Amino acid sequence: MAISLKLNGQTHQVEADPGTPLLWVIRDELKLTGTKFGCGVAACGACTVHLDGEPVRSCQTYVEDAEGAEITTIEGLDSKVSKAVQDAWVELDVVQCGYCQSGQIMSAVGLLSENPRPTVEEIDDYMDGNACRCATYQRIRAAIQRASEMMEA
């Protein structure tokens, strides 16, 4: 079926079977590979994108449910919040292997967009479900705190 998607500010016409995960359309049809496949059951967060500004797991979001919504991938981030998060990630050298990082960043941007001054507990609660095989959780938490500080400056 033909579906119109607004992705990173551009409208795309795609052909996809009903029930196709948005992840596969983003990666295979639209060739944006920053969004990663991790588990396929929305448990790891590697596939996180924003749907109308809210972080969602694209492996469990059907393409037809995204029609008419604004979809943002890691490639399309462009805001004060996302700039602060990305700068903090670099400053604190968060990335180890990097596989989960686009999902981590998408979730961190979602958190700081909702709550610009989260506590450590709020960070941990919000980021729960974003798995990092390299266990850089302390650096991720520190980078979110640093991004929060950068946003206030």
UniProtKB/TrEMBL annotation:
Residues 1-77 form the 2Fe-2S ferredoxin-type domain. The lineage of its organism: Bacteria, Pseudomonadati, Pseudomonadota, Alphaproteobacteria, Rhodobacterales. Pfam families: Fer2, Fer2_2. Keywords: 2Fe-2S, Iron, Iron-sulfur, Metal-binding, Oxidoreductase, Plasmid. It comes from Leisingera aquaemixtae. This is (2Fe-2S)-binding protein. The keyword rRNA-binding does not apply.
